[in-house]
Design brief:
By secondary structure, the protein is mainly alpha-helical. It is built from four helices and two strands; from the N terminus they run αββααα. The protein has a two-stranded antiparallel ribbon.
């Protein structure tokens, strides 16, 4: 039990890489949802990544 309360007081890593207190980790989950990419953005990024990798393949002559 004491270990659990101790766990709740150590900083947690957020997805952004910033260390924030445990209690704040839950209040920021709403902000994280707002900053998620839309489907269109995801597809655009994936398409760009595919274009770049194809370009490298062509340069290597594959």
């Amino acid at each position: 039990r004491r270990f659990q309360t101790w766990l709740h007081h150590i900083p947690v890593m957020a997805f952004s890489g910033k260390i924030i207190p445990y209690e704040e980790a839950f209040s920021t989950s709403q902000q994280k949802q707002n900053s998620r990419m839309t489907e269109g953005e995801k597809e655009r990024i994936l398409k760009r990544a595919a274009d770049i990798s194809n370009r490298f393949k062509e340069m290597r002559g594959e």
